[in-house]
Amino acid sequence: MAALCRSLRARRLALAASVARRVPRRLDGPRGPSVRLYRDAVTVLRAELVTSGYGQGRDWANAQTVYTALTASVQPAGARDATGRKPDEDLSRETAIHTHRVYTPGQADIRASDRVQYGGQLYEVVGSPWVWAPVTGSPAYTLALIRRVDG
Predict the structure, then answer these.
(1) The pLDDT of residue 42
(2) pLDDT of 95-112, one tens digit each?
(3) Which residue in 115, 91, 90 sits closest to 102, CA to CA?
(4) All residues at 6 or more sequence positions from 55 whose CB lies less than 8 Å from its CB, including other chains
(5) Residues 6 or more apart in contact with residue 77 via CB below 8 angstroms
(6) In angstroms, rounded to a whole number, what is the distance separating the alpha carbons of residues 146 and 151?
(7) How far apart are CA 101 and CA 103, in angstroms?
(8) What is the pTM of this model?
(9) Domain chopping of the chain, boundaries
(10) Is residue 46 within 8 Å of residue 111, measured between CB atoms?
(11) At residue 80, does pLDDT exceed 90?
């Protein structure tokens, strides 16, 4: 039994060493080598709710920047063509929906009614952002789903 445990431990150490050789490392942290996960910059825009002759809506022409994250991680969550067109619709019009997940460290000031600017494009926040707090209780990151519709 002891020989089996030593063999499994040796395999684990060999696997960890081979993975460590393949992972790119940077000397940018105070504790030594680290891999930088949050590389993207995002800006969160918020507009006031205004009342007009047509009802209530957001005044995006006068939107304010409420949060800028220079250390965010934006990951594609999918892109697809919109289907389910009505028979009388113009079939030459193509629609594409781009969805991304935005991770920001800590607790970010992002609401479901906000818009996010990323990569020169404007996205709308889909649903309420989610703050993940591990067992320690301090927020580790905020996750927001964003979407852009072309066409």
Answers:
(1) 94
(2) 788 899 999 988 888 999
(3) 115
(4) none
(5) 99, 100, 101, 145
(6) 17
(7) 7
(8) 0.66
(9) 1-36, 37-150
(10) yes
(11) no
